[in-house]
Amino acid sequence: MGCGLAVPALAQAVAAPTIAADQALDLAKKAIALRSVRGPGNQTPQVAALYKSALVAGGFADADVEIVPVDDTAYLIGTWRGSDPKLKPLVISGHMDVVEAKPSDWQRDPFTPVVENGYLFGRGASDMKLDGTTAIAALVDLRRSGYKPKRTIVIEFSGDEETVMKTSALIAERLKDADIVLNIDGGGGVLDEESGKPKYWTWQGAEKTYADFRLTVTNPGGHSSAPRPVNAIVELSRALDKIGRYRFKPELSPLTREALAKAAPYEEPAIGAALKAFVADPTDEAAIAMLVANPGTVGRIGTTCVPTLVSGGHAENALPQRATANINCRIFPGHKPADIMAELAQAVGDSGVTFSDVTEGSVANDASPLRPDFLAAVNRAMGKVYPGVPVFPAQSSGASDSMWFRYHHVASYGASPTFSKESQDFSHGLNERTPISNIAPGILYYRSLFTDLSK
Fold it and tell me: What residue stretch is flagged as signal peptide (predicted)?
């Protein structure tokens, strides 16, 4: 059976190769059925084997598709060698693992794929097994058409992006000589809630650096019947209050300046006006107050730090000997975690509170450059399948595999062609789904993008 290529709401004049589109959906169903969740019974290696079989059947040499076991997971690197070995490779990046899903919480079994009412349901449907299999099908279709890349194309999938990102770091280390990375787990488009038509599409050119800082206060302790002037819990509480009220200086980068300006018309009027005012003058106090008060925009105009965990004391009838707290920060690109931690310590202004960086699984990374070749290629590809739909950049507050490539100074861009309604974004949540009408235009989009950046 075909996957249903009539897509009146998405790309009316698009006719993707039926074989490729059917392959993408079939592979996605098989991948969703494999429970690729970290821990006992992790089937990520089986997903890697499934993807390898599709690549080899599509013309890749068996030796050019490597599966590397790591702990209970694995990663995959497939290489399509270009005609000019002097050129650095184009890397297509994704991941195979998914977050946990308990069948008792779902309306359907999360690991039994179902196509219903134009949607593919199942854990990983939107994050990101269908995107991954669509990219695989597009590559195979390019080979089938006789295309011969000048630049080597590498497609890779990490196996623990949703958790510790160990394989993500290993892959980036191996491929740090890449010319450019297309992270198909980032970016994407928004559909109008009523009409279902595309409103706009964004590519991700930067993400904030994740950091955890531990605050610690220690005291001699003693009997609670004899309070002392200094109490570890009270001292820590005062520090947390200062951090809770502290605001980092709002800022713009070349990428966020364009991103906020072009996103403004799609926000509610008051927020849109504040975004425009902030772009025009990043010191506009009224605009800043409006944007800081809104959870949807506070993280888009600078670094944020917030207390997330607190622990203190050891007995109900004893003075606390120790109190600790975790401060979680999302750092605007261009700043080092050590500098942000020092700024927080200065804001607290108490030598009795010690700060330490306890971040795991994250590294500092700057924004990717606004490369003309990428911008031209992505605008051309999107224009072929969604003519007239606005295209502009975005900065993510969360971490992705792009972080590890940017850490090695390799330009990485989130460039998924998937569109969905904001109200139907169930990534990491219950009853995850994605419109299968994305498959047909996604094939053509990927073909165009991969060709332009490898020819």
Answer: 1-20
Residues 194 and 45 in one domain: yes
Last-in-domain residue among 357, 390, 423: 357
Report the largest interatomic distance among the alpha carbons of the chain, rounded to a whole angstrom. 83
Provide the pairing of β-strand 73-80 with 65-70. Answer: antiparallel
Cα gap 164→162, rounded to integer Å = 7
Domain at 82, CATH number? 3.40.630.10
> What's phi and psi for 214, nearest 5 deg?
-105, 130
Report the CATH number at residue 326: 3.30.70.360
Neighbours of 196 (CB within 10 A): 15
CA 43, chain centre distance (Å): 22
Band of pLDDT at residue 116, cut at 50, 70 and 90: very high
C-beta neighbour count of 57 within 10 angstroms:
10
On the question of pLDDT at 124 being above 80, the answer is yes
Query: Which of the 8 DSSP states describes residue 322?
Result: E
Please tell me the predicted confidence (pLDDT) of residue 9.
Answer: 42
pLDDT bucket at 398, cuts 50 / 70 / 90: confident
Report how far residue 99's alpha carbon sits from residue 237's, in angstroms, rounded to the nearest whole number: 34
Do 235 and 350 form a contact (C-beta atoms < 8 A)? yes
Burial environment of residue 46 by CB neighbours within 10 A (0 to 12, 13 to 18, 19 or more): middle
Q: How confident is the model at residue 296 (pLDDT cuts 50, 70, 90)?
A: very high
Does a structural domain hold residue 54? yes
pLDDT exceeds 60 at position 4: no
What pLDDT does 430 receive? Answer: 72
b/e map 290-306, b = 16+ CB within 10 Å: bbbebeebbbbbbbbbe
